[in-house]
Description:
Blueprint: H1 13-23, H2 28-35, H3 39-47, H4 54-61, H5 68-72, E1 91-92, E2 98-102, E3 113-119, E4 135-142, E5 144-149, E6 152-157, E7 161-165, E8 170-173, E9 180-187
Antiparallel strand pairs: 1-2, 2-3, 3-9, 4-7, 4-9, 5-6, 5-8
Helix pairs in contact: 1-3
Amino acid sequence: MTDSASDIRGDDVGIRLQRLRTQFQLSQRQLSKRSSVANATISQIESGALNPTIGTLRKILSGFPISLAAFFGDDLAPPAQQTFYRKSELTELSEGSVSYRQVGNSLLNRAIQFLWERYEPGGDTGRHALSHEGEECGFVISGELTVTVAGETRTLKAGEAYYFNSDQPHTFKNEGAGPCELISACTPPSF
């Protein structure tokens, strides 16, 4: 069962979440209170019955001092600093109608998150608006992307860009007929 087309990749999301929650000595109810995500949703994710959207997982992780990148990292030890990346070395963070390919496997001790994003027609960031610390910007390479920030909506086409404080509620959706590709960055890394 999924709750949106932009579900997080990986069968081990529930296992990772349960391990993290246990590490912080939180019950599912305590995490529910901290993150404002229903206890039943957390339980379903941990049991593997529900794959969370990026927005939902971000909301849950707001109950911990951890980013999405660190959550999906192989471990919390600082990685060896790599300078150059082949296309095959980009880390895929999602599956479904939205693809997020991150430069670098782990962003621990990094100040910027840099992504190559692809939204299939109808692909979006989920039912809930995203909101997190920092700033983010992006440049549409092809197709079109509808971006809503703090209630203001604009459809961006190839060659157009956005830049905003990411503590404002925001969503992204491809309402066009073809795929949309863009390059984006945010600081500090929040994914």
